[in-house]
Every structure is written in C-alpha cells, then in structure tokens.
Amino acid sequence: TALGAGRGRLAVQVLSESLVLSITGGAAGTLIALYGLEPFAAMFPGGLARASEIVVDYRVLLVALGISLSTGILIGILPAMRSARMSTGDALASGDRGYAGSRGRNRAQATLVVAQVALAFALLAGAGLLTKSFLRLIAVENGFVAENRVVMSIVLPEPYRSSEEQIRLFYEELGDHLSALPGVEVVGSASQLPFVGGSSWPPVLVETSEGEIEAGIHAVSATPEYFDAMEVPLRAGRALSSDDRSGGVPVIVINEAMAQRYWPDENPIGRRISLEGYILEQDDVERIWLTVVGVVGNIRYFHGSPHFVMYWFPFSQYPYFFQTFVIETAGNPAAVIAPARAALRAMDPNIPARIGRYDEIIENSPGVTAPRFGASATAILATIAALLALIGIYGVLASAVAQRTHEIGIRIALGACEGRLLRAVLRRGIFLACLGLTAGLCVALLVARVLESVLYEISPTDPLTLVEVGILVLGAALAAGYIPARRATKVDPVEALRQE
C-alpha cells in the first residue's frame, strides 16, 4: 500500500491465492468421491438399501463445487478486508511481513482450531456411542445357534396348494431328502425364522386365571425337529413331537416371554388359547382350543427388538405353503448348499428357493447392517474431522513458531533450556485443545438426545465414552503440537537473529 498498490489489486492477489487452494482441494475431493464411493458402498453388502444405485450425482457435485468456491472467496475476502483497515505505518513499524496484523491472524487461527477440535470431539463422541451401541447389539444372546447352519426358504407355487395334505407331503418328503445328505445332522423347518422371515400376529383369546384376554401373539408353524436344529432350550413340559398330527389334540409350545406375560408365577402347562370363534366373532362357531404342552427359551427375531411373545404349533396340524428349513451340518455349511439345492430340483426344478449360510444371512440382515452402517459412516466422518483438527493445531503452532523465530533465538542465546521452550510452545496447543473440548462437550450434550432413538443399551451422555474421546482428542492434539514445538528447540540463535 505504501508503494502505491490499490485495494483492488491487493484483494485480487489474496482472492487468487485462496481460490487456487479451494479449487485444488475441491478437485482432490472430487477424485476421492469418484474413486472412493464404490468401495465405501461395498462395505455393506446386502444391508444398505439400493446401495448399487449410489453414484456421484452431477447436481451434488455442482453444489460441492459451489461450496468449495464460496469457501475460497470467503477465506480470501475476510483477510483482504482486515488488511484494508490496517494502518500502513503501524504495519511497517511492526516488522510483520504478513498481510494482516499478527494478533488478528492469531485470533482467527485460534478460533478455527477451537471450532475444529469442538467438531472433532462431538463427532468422535457420536461415533463412539454408535460403535459401542453396535457392539452391544451384536453381543446380545439371540436364544439360538446360527453357526454351522444352512437355511432354505421356499414358497410353494399354486399347483401345490390344492390341499393341506399335499403341502404336508411335499415338505415332509423334502425334509427326508435333506436329512439324508452327507454332513447333515438335523433338519427342521418353520413358517418364519429369526432374521429371515417376517412375523404374523393373529388375534387370539388367552385363557388366564382372570378370564379370557384378547391378544395378538406371534405365531409360527414348526416341525418337531425345529427346536433341535436351532438348539432352542426346553424350559418346561415337552417340545412338539411326531405324534402331534392332523386330527390329534391341537397343541402349542410357548416361549418364556408369553408364559411370563399371561401366567406369571403359575404353571403354564395345560393352559389354552383359542383361534376360532374370536376371529369369526360368531357365537354358533365352536372354538378350537390349543393346549400349551411346553415352554422354550426366548428367541430374538431382530437385533435390537425385544423378545416376542410367541408360540409354535405343529406343522402337521397347520401346514403353511411357505417354509424355511434349518439344516444343521457337522462341518462346513457351504458344502451343503449345492446338494440341498439339488435335492429340491430333483423333486421339482421349477420351485425357486433362497438358500445360504444362516450366520451370513444374520450378518447381512437390516437389523445388523443399519446400525453398522451408521457407526461406520459416523466413525469415518469423525476421523476426518479429527484429522482436520490436528492439522489445524499443527498449523497454528507451526505458524506461531515461525513468527517467534527471532524471540526464540534470543531466548536460546540467553540460555533458555530445551524443556522450557518445548513446554512454552506446547502450552498454546493444549490451551486451544482444552477450549475446543469444552465447546465440543457442550455441543455433544446438546445433540445427544438426537442419538437416543438409535442407541442400544447405552446412554447418549455416557460419561465413559465422553472421557475416552476427550483423552483421545487431547492426546492427538499434543502429538500434533509436538513437531513444531520440537522444531522450536532446534532453532539456531545466530540464524534467528540474522532474520531481522
């Protein structure tokens, strides 16, 4: 300015520098998006809905480009405006070669670092909560064994639905063929399987000590071998048996949740529920009562869901045209998939079936992939934010060291020890990190309730997670500040004095 440069020329210079940086960063981000999106979406096979349709949309890309350019303009305008307000004489007297006074620049840098640390802490806290929630979710006991199991889901086409007897004969014959395969130990089937099928809640009347109660209870048709194939423990009474056939006494096996709901502190064996009559709501229709003959352990049908109140009735008495077979194997379950499919084709090659390893199906079910996706995506964003915060801390401290080269040289010439210089430089980084942690804690507590609905058995303000994240961020900030601090202790006092 003293040499005659106009404000417009100075503004163009500052803007051109900031725009080059923002355009370069935007181009790098575009490359990351183009080449990083596919492997990111592939992290969640089968679980992320319509993952194959995710692409880099040109409209989103234009928005990102606009944000990148706007950021470059904003970053350039603010320093240019601050430079225009400076006193030329004061700037020349200060000996500062920068485009703005050191105090203003330091305050702006410090503010950005505090904001970056606060954002990193809030995102890392959210990622930590979601990760812990996901780990607790998958650690929950499901009540059955999925390892070394193959499941095969079948929906019989119309020709096979002409009578219940035809449905029964087809599935019983297929079950015999599957049981005869090499490496197969137990074969059972059910109309609905945890993490595979849906759920049905037919209305019933429950016979209790206080009278009949209307309820909707999850009902499943199952073969006697089903509980052995799933290793569901028997708690009381007996399981379904081959004697529970059509024309016999209608029976059911209930889970512990149902026993506790309707017959607490009582023996549920011998109690009854009714299907007919309540559904038809006709007094002249004789009700069909199903007698409880056994109680088994609770089975979790979906991760994160409570234990269903449910019962199983014999497949032979109520055959459904859709069934899912559970095939327990002695060795590698993948070796049974092809023979099982061949057994079905030998009976009818036109009947489709979904077949696969049970543990892999559960792993890729929405109840698992949805929280895993949320935890992973948040962790990636939090990691990026943390890296930005560390870069910011490093940049501020490196800039501070560069600006204080003359001062540091004088201190070394006067005998300042290395440890004291190291602490002096690190102190600023620790101070900014602590300010950012305080602000980040406030932000995390304010938005914690947003995560409450997606967390499983963990508080959104879990103190252990907040402390762990705080220690992690503070430790990372110290590591980021160590390099410029260490560099400060290696300044040559003669060279530092010559700079002025």
Portion of residues in helices?
40-55%
Ranges where pLDDT stays below 50 over 5 or more residues in a row are: 97-101, 277-282
SSE string, helices as H and strands as E: HHHHEHEEEEHEEHEEEEHEHHHHHH
Number of strands: 12
* Biggest β-sheet strands, sense, barrel: 8 strands, mixed
Cα-based radius of gyration, to the nearest Å: 34 Å
Can you describe this structure?
It is built from 14 helices and twelve strands. It has about 500 residues and is of the alpha+beta class. α10 runs antiparallel to α12.
Secondary-structure map:
Layout: H1 7-41, H2 58-84, H3 88-94, H4 102-139, E1 149-155, H5 164-179, E2 184-190, E3 203-208, E4 211-216, E5 218-222, H6 226-230, E6 234-237, E7 251-255, H7 256-262, E8 272-274, E9 289-296, E10 310-314, E11 322-329, H8 334-347, E12 353-357, H9 358-363, H10 366-403, H11 405-413, H12 418-451, H13 463-489, H14 493-498
Parallel strand pairs: 5-10, 7-9
Antiparallel strand pairs: 1-11, 1-12, 2-11, 3-4, 3-8, 6-9, 7-10, 8-9
Which short descriptors sum up this protein?
500 residues, 8-stranded mixed beta sheet
Brief rundown of the structure:
Helix content is 54%, strand content 14%. It has 500 residues and is α+β, with helices and mostly antiparallel strands.
